[in-house]
Structure formats: structure tokens, C-alpha cells
Specification:
This protein has one domain. It is mostly helical. This is Imm-5-like domain-containing protein. It holds the Pfam family Imm5_like.
């Protein structure tokens, strides 16, 4: 795996624990997206974009939609079933207040079309 992706995952974990700056998250996101652009395999590209969006959530909440959507796209492109990942994502949403979970779920369903999922 590209070191930039591993670094972005580490920064995302540090952000979640309150130990990373917004600047570090932005820089890690840019590195992950650079890795996505350089990847020859479309599955790797989608996975790298998922990582880039996950860490970018630190500076812009809307990026939170990209992480799960690109994860689904990577699975689809790899010929893997999406049901288990979708179920896990839905389970995570249930930890949020109901109105927010409904908003996020609805938005993700709308955006799936543009992601060709």
C-alpha cells in the first residue's frame, strides 16, 4: 500500500482522538488524492479517494460522504458484494441522532447515482 494512504489513515485516527491538526489532515488528504490520481488500478483509485475523503472530513464535514461512497465504489469495481458494507455503514449511522442519520442516509442514496454505485 502507498505510504501516503497509510499516513492519511493514521492522521484520520489521530484526528478522531483529538491529536491531529486540521492542517495535518488537509495535507494527508492531498497526499491520498495524489495517490489516487497516480494509481493505475481503478479499485485502488476508489479506495484511495475513500481514504482521502475520510481524513478530509477534519476540515469539511461534506467530505464525510465521500469516504463511504468511494468505499462502496471500490468494492463494486472489485466485483465484491455491497450488502455487508452497506449494512455496516447503516449500523454506524444509527449511532447518530435519528434526524441526522436520516439526512445522511438520504443524501448518500442520492449521491450513489453520481458515483455509479
Amino acid at each position: 500500500m502507498d505510504d501516503r494512504l497509510l499516513h492519511a489513515l493514521q492522521v484520520a485516527k489521530e484526528w478522531e482522538q483529538g491529536n491531529a491538526t486540521v492542517g495535518a489532515a488537509m495535507k494527508a488528504s492531498l497526499g491520498a488524492h495524489a495517490a489516487a490520481r497516480e494509481a493505475a488500478d481503478p479499485v485502488v483509485t476508489a479506495a484511495a479517494r475513500s481514504i482521502g475523503h475520510a481524513v478530509a472530513t477534519a476540515h469539511m464535514a461534506d467530505h464525510s460522504m465521500g469516504a463511504p461512497l468511494y468505499a462502496l465504489k471500490a468494492l463494486k469495481m472489485a466485483g465484491r458484494p455491497l450488502d455487508e458494507e452497506r449494512a455496516w455503514q447503516y449500523e454506524q449511522l444509527q449511532q447518530l441522532p435519528a434526524d441526522i442519520a436520516e439526512l445522511v442516509s438520504g443524501t448518500m442514496k442520492q449521491k450513489e447515482k453520481s458515483f455509479k454505485i
